[in-house]
């Protein structure tokens, strides 16, 4: 099974890359864009029998820093 793990900075954490991207969008003359956050997407190929608990463990303990990042999982 293919699993996507999306990792983004927590809303309370400063995201200078996101702020720079938002500013660049405004400089293009585009309006209506609010906050921009930049993160990463990791694609995992796992056996269909992999329990959700193991997927969450991989995401929490290996792919993200739970102090400053949130993650979400899509199958």
- Strand share of the residues? 25-35%
CATH fold category name = Mth169, Chain: A
Q: Strand order of the main beta sheet, please?
A: 2-1-3
In the predicted model, the low-confidence regions spanning at least 5 consecutive residues are none
CATH superfamily, by name, is Phosphoribosylformylglycinamidine synthase subunit PurS
Q: How many structurally independent domains?
A: 1
Mean pLDDT, to the nearest integer, reads 97
Let me know the number of strands: 3
> What is the H/E string?
EHEHE
Which class best fits the helix and strand makeup?
alpha+beta
CA-based shape: elongated
The number of helices is 2
Query: Largest beta sheet, briefly?
Result: 3 strands, antiparallel
What fraction, in percent, of the residue positions are helical?
Answer: 25-40%
CATH class: Alpha Beta
CATH architecture group name: 2-Layer Sandwich
Spatial gap, N to C terminus: 7 Å
Report the radius of gyration as a whole number of Å: 15 Å
């Amino acid at each position: 099974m293919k699993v996507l793990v999306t990792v983004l900075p927590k809303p309370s954490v400063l995201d200078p890359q996101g702020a720079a991207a938002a500013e660049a969008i405004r400089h293009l003359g585009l309006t209506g864009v609010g906050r921009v956050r930049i993160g990463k997407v990791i694609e995992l190929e796992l056996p269909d029998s992999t329990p959700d608990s193991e997927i969450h463990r991989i995401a929490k303990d290996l792919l993200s820093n739970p102090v400053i990042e949130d993650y979400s999982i899509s199958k």
